[in-house]
């Protein structure tokens, strides 16, 4: 379910022209933002908790090798097995090998962004019947699309589109009446119940991995992950190495941050702790538990300027508050991670040369950093990627020459003042208000009017005039 190989700009233009997508985005825009704001008001110590979360993640990353060893030992003691995967291919192979050895026929899969990252669905569907258990993931699986949001994968789908999907795949018909959301949910629940009961293997992600107990922590609001991990005889959890935390105490702090930042809840409806395979005195749980830990570029990030991005707990707050994401949705970003987090993670995992447009698709307004629960300096990292693209000559030559020209001018204050003053006077002669077309501004005017400067001079001239006026007064 890979997205089109067309470049970011083409995908963004297509998204802006998609009326259904714009309607879905408009409907979803306020929900995450407003709920998060309300949840934080209920916790006066939220800023202290953010700082605590940053410290936990930085400490764990500093001693990651130690916590990896501790997690493996405790997982093994609890009856689980750990599999290291250096890259996406080895992660897929590890999961496929476990499925083959278990003689699996049917797989039920809970939501996992790590699984999306390594292309797990495509590999599984080539050999096994594989069904997503998360409602949003199930919808986009039917549509053969990738997720457009890491928390709400089908946020780009309208109710009418979901009705049409269910009619086609569940009933073999088209053009049925629009159904209400509860009816659609109940229909999906009935279809998935049979899949839960018939699955040989359940696959999940992991929100956190607790080193001192070997515990997998999962959070959902549907309970689908519990059924995916407890009913099948084999459970496979796939996660990045950065998901580790030292102990349950740290996991508790991170859970308080995650729920408020992601969905505006004090805590998610289902918070599950899984420690090892089923024991003799337990009534449910898998006979085998496997954890596939993926690197896939994370070790490289540990040693470079983008290390703090490994703090990310995949809450989605940065994209919920991003004006660019709100305008074009997730698919325009071209890979698993959209929004500000994707603007950093995609170049890290897939190469800056393949995704150089993403760091440019940012207004640098800073809202993502303000709302990040672990204080990742996303605008700083995005600017750094722009610098890297410039230095590596990935940025187009015309843009590089333009930046060099502006830098040359900006380092000469008198000349800069004279040139900007001349430009202001010339543009002010075009009239007042705005214009629909202007030389060298076609990209701007293609989507909006260009405001014209007033006749009061440049910003610097107006500021100096006000300063003089204040002193005279």
What are the salient characteristics of this protein?
single chain; 473 residues; Rossmann fold; 6-stranded parallel β-sheet; 4-stranded mixed β-sheet; 53% helix; disordered N terminus; 4Fe4S_Fe-S-bd
Instruction: Tell me the span between the first and last alpha carbons.
Output: 67 Å
Task: Write down the overall geometry.
Answer: globular
**Average predicted confidence as pLDDT:** 92
CATH class of the largest domain: Alpha Beta
In terms of structural class, how would the helical and strand content be classed? alpha/beta
**Helix share, percent:** 40-55%
InterPro entries: 4Fe4S_Fe-S-bd, 4Fe4S_Fe_S_CS, FTHF_cligase-like_sf, Helical_ferredxn, LUD_dom, LutB/LldF, NagB/RpiA_transferase-like
Organism: Spiribacter pallidus
Domain 4Fe-4S ferredoxin-type: 303-333
Keywords: 4Fe-4S, Electron transport, Iron, Iron-sulfur, Metal-binding, Repeat, Transport
Explained architecture:
With 473 residues, the protein is α/β, with parallel strands linked by helices. It has two domains: 8-299, NagB/RpiA/CoA transferase-like (Rossmann fold, 3-Layer(aba) Sandwich), CATH 3.40.50; 412-472, no CATH class. The chain is built from 23 helices and twelve strands. It has helices spanning 8-16, 19-41, 46-62, 64-77, 88-101, 113-117, 120-125, 135-143, 159-171, 181-198, 224-230, 248-263, 298-302, 317-320, 323-328, 339-350, 357-360, 367-371, 378-391, 397-410, 413-428, 442-445, 459-472; strands at 80-85, 106-109, 129-132, 201-204, 208-210, 215-220, 234-240, 244-245, 270-274, 288-294, 434-435, 450-451. The strands form three sheets. Strands 1-10-7-4-2-3 form a six-stranded parallel sheet, with helices on both faces. A four-stranded mixed sheet has the order 8-5-6-9. Strand 5 and strand 6 (215-220) form a beta hairpin. Helix 2 packs across helix 12, helix 9 (159-171) packs across helix 10 and helix 16 (339-350) crosses helix 19. Mean pLDDT is 92; it is low at 1-5. Pfam families: Fer4_8, LUD_dom. Residues 303-333 form the 4Fe-4S ferredoxin-type domain. Keywords: 4Fe-4S, Electron transport, Iron, Iron-sulfur, Metal-binding, Repeat, Transport. This is LutB/LldF family L-lactate oxidation iron-sulfur protein. InterPro entries: 4Fe4S_Fe-S-bd, 4Fe4S_Fe_S_CS, FTHF_cligase-like_sf, Helical_ferredxn, LUD_dom, LutB/LldF, NagB/RpiA_transferase-like.
């Amino acid at each position: 379910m890979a997205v089109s190989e067309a470049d970011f700009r083409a995908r963004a233009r297509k998204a802006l022209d998609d009326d259904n997508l714009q309607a879905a985005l408009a409907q979803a825009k306020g929900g995450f933002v407003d709920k998060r704001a309300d949840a934080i008001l209920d916790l006066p110590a939220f800023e202290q908790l953010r700082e605590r979360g940053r410290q936990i993640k930085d400490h764990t990353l500093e001693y990651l090798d130690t916590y990896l060893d501790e997690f493996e030992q405790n997982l093994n003691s609890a009856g689980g097995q750990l599999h290291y995967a250096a890259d996406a291919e080895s992660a897929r192979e590890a999961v496929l090998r476990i499925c083959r050895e278990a003689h699996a026929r049917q797989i039920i899969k809970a939501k996992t962004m790590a699984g999306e990252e390594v292309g797990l669905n495509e590999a599984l569907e080539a050999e096994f019947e594989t069904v997503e258990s998360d409602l949003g993931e199930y919808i986009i699986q039917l549509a053969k699309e990738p997720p457009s949001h890491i928390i709400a994968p089908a946020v780009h789908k309208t109710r009418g589109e979901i009705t049409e999907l269910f009619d086609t795949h569940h009933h073999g018909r088209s053009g049925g009446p629009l159904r209400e959301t509860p009816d659609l949910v109940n229909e999906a629940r009935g279809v998935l119940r049979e899949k839960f009961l018939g699955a040989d293997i359940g696959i999940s992600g992991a929100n956190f991995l607790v080193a001192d107990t070997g515990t997998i922590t999962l959070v959902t609001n549907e309970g689908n992950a519990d059924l995916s991990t407890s009913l099948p005889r084999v459970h496979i959890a796939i996660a990045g190495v950065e998901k580790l935390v030292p102990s349950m105490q740290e996991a508790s702090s991170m859970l308080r941050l995650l729920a408020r930042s992601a969905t505006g809840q004090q805590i998610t409806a289902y918070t599950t702790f899984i420690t090892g395979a089923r024991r003799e005195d337990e009534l449910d749980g898998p006979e085998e538990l496997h954890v596939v830990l993926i690197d896939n570029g994370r070790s490289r990030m540990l040693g470079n300027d983008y290390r703090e991005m490994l703090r990310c707990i995949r809450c989605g707050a940065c994209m919920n508050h991003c004006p660019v994401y709100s305008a074009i949705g997730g698919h325009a970003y071209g890979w698993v991670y959209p929004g500000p987090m994707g603007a950093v993670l995609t170049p890290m995992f897939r190469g800056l040369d393949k995704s150089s447009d993403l760091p440019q698709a940012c207004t640098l307004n800073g809202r993502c950093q303000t709302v990040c629960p672990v204080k990742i300096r996303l605008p700083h990292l995005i600017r750094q990627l722009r610098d890297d693209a410039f230095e590596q000559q990935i940025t187009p030559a015309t843009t590089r020459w333009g930046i060099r020209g502006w830098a040359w001018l900006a380092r000469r204050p008198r000349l800069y003042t004279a040139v900007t003053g001349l430009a202001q006077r010339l543009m002010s002669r075009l009239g007042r208000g705005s214009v629909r077309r202007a030389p060298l501004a076609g990209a701007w005017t293609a989507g909006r009017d260009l405001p014209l400067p007033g006749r009061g001079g440049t910003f610097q001239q107006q500021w100096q005039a006000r300063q003089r006026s204040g002193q005279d007064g």
